[in-house]
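Hello,

I think I submitted the protoporphyrin IX containing FE job twice by accident. Can you confirm which output corresponds to this input? Input:
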Amino acid sequence: MPTTALPPGPTGSWLGGSIRQFRDRRLDFFLDVAREYGELASFRFGPRQIFLVSDPNLIEQVLVTDAKHYIKHFGARAYMPVLGNGLVTSEGEFWLRQRRLSQPAFLKQRVLSYAPLMADLTTRMLEHWKSGSDVDVHFEFSTLTSAIALKTLFDLDDPGDRDRFTVTLRLAFDLMSDRFRRLIKLPSWLPTASNRKLKAAVKELHAVVDGFIAAGQARKEPGNDLLSRLVAARDEDGKQMSASQLRDEMMTLYLAGHETTALTLSWSWYLISQHPEVEEKLVAEWNGVLAGRTPTAEDLTKLPYTDAVLTEAMRVYPPVYLIGREATQDLELGGYRVKKGYTVFMSQWVNHRDPRYFPNPEKFLPERWEDGLAKRIPKYAYYPFGGGQRVCIGNTFALMEAVIILAAVGQKFRFTVMPDARIDVNPQITLLPAHGIPATLISRR
Ligand code: HEM
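Support: Only one job matched these inputs. Its output is below.
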């Protein structure tokens, strides 16, 4: 019988619980709680009871064994006004049907067919780069992965259309984030000034995306883009996705896909710029395998060190640093009772810094992955893409994109991070660099 007591943890204030400590210290708050109270700890955010789980086996229990008794946590659901009922936010039978319809578009062979397009857009970006110019590394890679996402999702390359989409999306997101920051939230149906603005921005966004979808549907020959695949997808009963469902899925894929990959590249380049010995080995691998060529799908398995660098960068700076679930019934976890409605947090930031599996965890050391570390550690000691039935659908896509871009960029340029730059993390939905990553581009020639 599980005990009805709560796992150990900070008590915080009687009203807010630990919300202030979390706001002040963010990632360090999770690390401190895990280190001080152990692999199953608990605290409160206001009225919400939270468990923080960092035992890899218990994480597996939540994400895999008991997955059907959990739904996404309150934070993930909060993005529904913009993301609608897409793969990230939907639940139950509805989610399962959507996942089954979308899955074929992410099969390895399909994903590999995007390699030339990723390489081509990267080459086009590099043609505009000039040695000696100052850039924000994060801005450059966000722009590139956004262009790749819009081309692979909608077959869209008109820069005007791209701008219209990104500007309206940003506006809708800013308005929504603003709403979440407010202490007192009035219901979204009340016609307050900010609710009206949000409604108008979402309406505009939907109109833009509906336009892309209509253009895709009007094409005589279906393209090699994800939209064409989702338009053609049928479930066992022969049913297709509705127009609004297509829209929710396309926006979800765009949002879930491009920023996370941009962050992987940005943090990788930051770390590489601080570790010349790693850069030297990378360049040697690229010279040996690619000799100046842009990488193709066939090259991907021949670049193990490039792979190790990306794996290690996602360990040190996991783009998604926290995932959460809410129990839909009373459950057992590590001898404790998780009551219906409780939230369970799992933090990659905490697990990826566990010295039992990653000795000297703060050190960026791609070599630690070289002799099969991934197979020796428990599965949920390292999980940048989550796990279980809701594992990232785009993981193969993301890894391929990151390898191609890293090698294509790195053969032509290196980055010198500005000596006075302050590089801090800003944990939002993803792990952003707080002040960007300002650097100077230096041509390798
Ligand atoms: C390095 C890049 C990426 C990282 C680190 C990442 C990470 C994650 C994680 C941790 C989850 C699980 C969240 C949870 O369990 O609550 C997830 C889900 C998801 N990701 Fe990714 N992701 C990346 C790239 C992509 C790409 C490129 C796409 C699409 C093209 C994508 C689409 C999705 C979708 C649709 C889901 C929800 C899946 C579901 O619930 O069925 N992601 N991602």
